[in-house]
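One-letter codes give the sequence; the fold follows as tokens. Both lines appear below.
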Amino acid sequence: MAARPGPYSPDGRFWWDGTAWQPVQPPPQPQPQPQPQPQPQYGPPGQQGFQQPGFQQQGFQVPPGYPVPPGGGMPRTPRPRSGFVLLTIGAAIAALVLGGIIGGVVGLTTTKPRGDNSVPAFAGKFPDAKAQYLPGVTVSFIVDDWMKRANKWKCVKDPKTQDLYSRAKSQMKCEPPDDRGDMHVDIEYDADDKVKVVEATCWLGVHTKACKSLAAMMADAVLAAQPKLRKQAQKWAEQNSGSERATTIGGIRLEADLNPNGMKALPAL
């Protein structure tokens, strides 16, 4: 006995063979009979009214585990999409053009052009060549008056200047007379009245009295040409010698260092 065909689509044109929907072959024409017999009706086999829980679409019942064909088992004639696409593109172009016109009108009527075509003026104190040197500081005062006359230190000119960060033409090194090597003062300069850097370094320990005194005396020396600011610079250097703070007094920037401990004077550009 041949296997019974699976369930049919609502229009009766397809039947499920267990793996795919197959077209229904037309039934053979009935042979002439003395009396007419009713034609067999094709419909879903099995129990009438069978339904799968959770799925019923357009009166079509699917047994559990069977895949549903696209559109719920009823073949549909595809609609032409060209008209819809053209309509959509036309609507988008019209919206963009209308939006641009409205935005331009609103922008012209509600805002003013920004910006200034005039060339900005230079700052009142634009840095010049003199700004690269410490104001009022001279090599003769630092070396002769402070180092030699006041402290009996010895100073010699160091011929190695190619590695100087300041790119100064000359460098002077000053050390205590006993050659103990625990502190020194460096002066980097282009000429006697063109000093770029004065740096005091101390290896006797952070916050020691000797290192604090060296930093304070250096700050006092570089501000000697500005008597009203000498005390302020000396006090700040003494209080901050054991830190990495910095300040500007009288056009001179004082920078404290920890490794190695010391104080540096630079032009306040």
Q: What stands out?
A: Residues 132-267 form one domain.
